[in-house]
Amino acid sequence: MEKIGIMGGTFNPIHYGHLMISEYLREEMKLDKVLFIPTGNPPHKILSLDSKYRYEMVKIATESNKFFEVSDIEIKKSGYSYSVDTVKELKEQRPADYIFLIGLDTLFQLKTWKKLEELSREIEFAVALRPNYMEKEKVEGELTLLRKIFSTKIHIVESPLYEISSTEIRNRIREEKSVKYLMPREVIKYIKDNKLYRDDEIGY
After folding, report:
1. Alpha-carbon gap, residue 74 to 85, rounded angstroms
2. Phi and psi, residue 97, nearest 5°
3. Which long-range contacts (CB under 8 A, 24 or more apart) does 69-72 make?
4. Considering the domain 3-162, what is its CATH architecture?
């Protein structure tokens, strides 16, 4: 059976941090594929950019990697997108062993996810942490809580640190600053062509 990693997120926009950590976790976890799933209507965030733009940017960014795939399973939904529903639907459509690929920020948000205990019966998690991470005791405490209360299976993978955020990229674009080397040039071109992330243009 295939072993597939799920990289979910708003990808608003996708950048090299998302791609680097996905490739790193793919190798470390011995995954056959990484499935990128742009969120449609996430319950935790209000998004200003239409999902079709975010989906297209992910497609553009991942097309050169034969191990990367993109799914529109969440952006096709009209209501809120919950991971527990997405995973069950995925397993029906494409039976496989799925592993959620997450970062440190998401680790501390997990306990707020809808039906986490039910989700934890369906899927395991792999958390990317930088070596000698500063909050080791805090992280260990959170892992203990998740495993004890929700029976969550979590793998810890030490990985490189890539400190860039989608928020920072959006701000740089609005300020007409360079985002070269922060994201694939094809994605930069798509953003320019569609005039995204500018206060007075479509996409903001």
Report:
1. 10
2. -90, 115
3. 69/33, 69/34, 69/35, 69/36, 70/35, 70/36, 70/37, 70/38, 71/35, 71/36, 71/37, 72/38
4. 3-Layer(aba) Sandwich (3.40)
**Residues 25, 126: contact at Cβ < 8 Å?**
yes
Give 144's contacts (C-beta < 8 A, 6+ positions apart).
none
SS3 content of the chain, % helix, strand, coil (to 5): 40, 15, 40
φ, ψ dihedrals at 37, nearest 5°: -125, 95
The tens digit of pLDDT for each residue in 28-56 reads: 999 999 999 999 866 666 666 889 999 99
**What gap in Å lies between CA 111 and CA 89, rounded to an integer?**
22
The pTM for the full model equals 0.92
Parse the chain into domains and list their residue ranges.
3-162
